[in-house]
Amino acid sequence: MKNYSSKNENEENDLLTNDYLVKMNKYWQASNYLAIAQQYLLDNPLLRKPLEPNDIKKRIVAPWGTVPGQNFVYTHLNRVIKKFDLNMILLSGPGHGGHFWTAQTYLDGSLSEVYPQFSQDEKGLKNLCKAFCFPGGMSSHVASDMPGSLHEGGELGYSLSHASGAVFDNPDLIASVIVGDGEAETGPLATSWHINKFINPITDGAVLPILHLNGYKVANPTVLARISKTELKDFFKGLGWKPYFVEGSDPMTMHKLMCKTLDKVIIEIKELQDTARKNNDDTRPIWPMIVLRTLKGWTCPKEIDGVRIEGTHNAYHVPIPMTKPNHISLLEKWLRSHKPEELFDEKYKLKPELKALAPKGKSRFGANLHSNGGTLLKELKLPNFKKYAVPFSGHGTVNSQDTLVLSNFMRDIIKYNPENFRIFSPDELPSNRINAIYEITKSVFNAEIIKEDDNIAHGGRIMDSFLSEHMCEGWLEGYLLSGRHGTFVTYEAFATIINSMIS
Amino acid sequence: MKNYSSKNENEENDLLTNDYLVKMNKYWQASNYLAIAQQYLLDNPLLRKPLEPNDIKKRIVAPWGTVPGQNFVYTHLNRVIKKFDLNMILLSGPGHGGHFWTAQTYLDGSLSEVYPQFSQDEKGLKNLCKAFCFPGGMSSHVASDMPGSLHEGGELGYSLSHASGAVFDNPDLIASVIVGDGEAETGPLATSWHINKFINPITDGAVLPILHLNGYKVANPTVLARISKTELKDFFKGLGWKPYFVEGSDPMTMHKLMCKTLDKVIIEIKELQDTARKNNDDTRPIWPMIVLRTLKGWTCPKEIDGVRIEGTHNAYHVPIPMTKPNHISLLEKWLRSHKPEELFDEKYKLKPELKALAPKGKSRFGANLHSNGGTLLKELKLPNFKKYAVPFSGHGTVNSQDTLVLSNFMRDIIKYNPENFRIFSPDELPSNRINAIYEITKSVFNAEIIKEDDNIAHGGRIMDSFLSEHMCEGWLEGYLLSGRHGTFVTYEAFATIINSMIS
């Protein structure tokens, strides 16, 4: 079990002590604090003086509700990355909450390495607060310019397919995905739970979906949060996943539960991979996943002016609207409830005992090379296209088909690049006469295969056996952004289905 | 139980006899025969003389594989329409197989009523065969110009949302939907199983999904056909449906099973509605659905030139390609295996004892007014828009918001049209400031409602509590095409997601 034994036995034992969980909780509070500070503040980021109207942004726009849950996941994944020495990336599915990502990458230092203006001092922290959701600054979603962000937020529904694209041909990579429960209602996300039929446990990495049931989208409850637990379990079992539930609202109880669950889940993933690799058996395993049920806006004020906020759709956006003079003191109280003075030292730096909880170097989400594919990109080996030319001596003398010729060229690209080139298509390759590629490899299909099937295999390199433009586009994007090459084949008539993502 | 008792007790008893099933089988064979004839023949439609090369189309393009299964469903739904006196429409989800629809509407006469050139005689039948998939004729999918077609085929994934849109505010209507297993892989379809959280058992009708697992799409097996029955059951249970399985390949066994299952399912739908309406309880019921597993290309040749056809992806398109001279005799043998001389009389008319199996008049799928919405359309009552004008005396004198004003106008349209106008939006009404509408009615949400929820209800008229552009677009389209009015509210940035359907 060496691959997934604890790196640090002492730390492992620490976990059993309350002390470690208290530190984790503080780390989580630090990330939540920084997110609120980015949402509201222009100045006075650690409240070293009383909060003044001038410290506050004139227009407060970023949706907050999803932030504490996502910070919770990030903080906990940090722990397992360290404990198991994981090569893991994180994709944030919800459309907003970008300040959770900037808060976390600021805390672990990866943001400051890419953007020196967000330095680990008072000035850097001020800059960070001001820049978020501010003209010329950073967007309200986890955008592509945030370090470690492979999955651009905004249009919902592609987090799982992006994650899956990223782990193809990356056998040691785990892509954790926070799936928003609003996002989960979109078509592209709904069908992408089927990624587990296209992941090879030997040659690909693993995807760990964490469905974040915080109950509300912009104005309404989410469907998956309002069906019975039995239905939810059946749903995921039917889709071939093994769901683990982490549900509650008391932070310390939730920390303990999440630690235990994540340990179990990571060990399970590693064991499934070990078994498959040891026995050379690439049959689809039942991969684990997590259903994380938290309050919307968890830890924000319970009620303001008689209106319930925490745990309702009122927490989606701005928990404390700056509409009344006394709301400034409410905001100050909320910020101070995180005890920033216990989290940061006098030089505005995260305290060392908390900093020690984050992974180091390239193990941090903000610095993992797989989510910054350009750094890993190897040149595609291309055969000389001239040798595929159809010789002709005059008009009307030759009978040939363009895509059949093209398919010979594609076949050889696959041959020359067995580990970093794939073709993606929604079940349209043979009907487009891209046939020659099957001489080299097969279509990936990791559901049941029967003896009459000819062109499909658990281990193949052609991604054309799922009829969803959305899924195929997401796969391609994840594969490219993690530093590989690929192409997309579809009919012109159906290309508009994924217009919004392609453009 | 008068609403769903048998209309005709004798017929009911007939069902128990083999005689009735034999007739149903012949009706099915007649529809399959006509589909093959449309696919291949230009002339000699009932093979009254030996088949000659000149009788055959030069280019045979329509995909056949889905046809016999869809004909099977149509034939069986005809029976329950008659037996229970149902007001039912049918939507064909698979992208092709349009000749099943033209065959069936020709058999029941509704096609000939709309298109006199397809008369019920030799000439009409010849015209029908020639017109299908022929320049200037009819398309290979169930297009909007085919009588009774509310759901245009082609782009996959909208069959369930269209069906659901059609039954809103149509409490007596049942929309049966053949969902293709290829179609089921698309994002829009995958998320639309959730329609059951938006159908009100008192004021709306019912949707009966029939998932047609014939195992293959164009070139590959389908995922839902290649997971275990346990997973498939869990999947549908998790989505809140009660699945009934009809599986097999022996026609007579399958007829019996389908009769029994459909009887059970229709009675269940009616009982759920009766109970809800009697008790004024609009809580989401667990609606029944059917999983129909058949061979791909069921009843076509098992093997040609050593290549397996029936039950494989080779049956998707043209089971007998006209590539070798001896294939004409294979085609003739296949056509004659249906014994057309036992199905049609000497005047090329369907024999009366078979014709008697189809419903009459407006009960036929091809003539149901709900799938030809223009015939039912009532004018929308619009308030005078001038009374919503914002009075102003000069530039810069008035502070107002355009969409807030618009929302007053929309509120009153809802008020004046309580049964045939709905607003559709992917969770974006309050964020677009369309607030006033909630003074009149609530958002439809038929999953769990808790006491903190303010704007949602099982019975409402606003369709904005599901975050899927695809679903909302499908709902709107189904609502409009069945003869009502509606509007779609979304952000400009996200409108391109459904570009291909809108345009």
What would your notes on this structure say?
- The structure is a homodimer of 503-residue chains.
- Chain A is α/β, with parallel strands linked by helices and 503 residues long.
- Chain A has 2 domains: 4-370, Rossmann fold, CATH 3.40.50.970; 385-502, Thiamin diphosphate (ThDP)-binding fold, Pyr/PP domains (Rossmann fold).
- Chain A has 17 helices and 12 strands.
- Chain A has helices spanning 9-16, 18-40, 67-84, 98-107, 110-114, 122-131, 159-167, 187-192, 229-238, 251-278, 327-336, 340-343, 352-355, 402-416, 469-481, 492-495, 499-502; strands at 87-92, 173-180, 206-213, 241-247, 287-293, 303-304, 307-308, 421-424, 443-444, 456-457, 462-463, 485-488.
- A 5-stranded parallel sheet of chain A has the order 1-2-3-5-4, with helices on both faces.
- In chain A, α8 (187-192) links the parallel β2 (173-180) and β3 (206-213).
- In chain A, α2 crosses α3 (67-84), α2 (18-40) packs across α4 and α2 crosses α6 (122-131).
- The first copy, chain A, is elongated.
- The mean pLDDT of chain A is 92.
- The interface between A and B is large, with 68 and 68 residues.
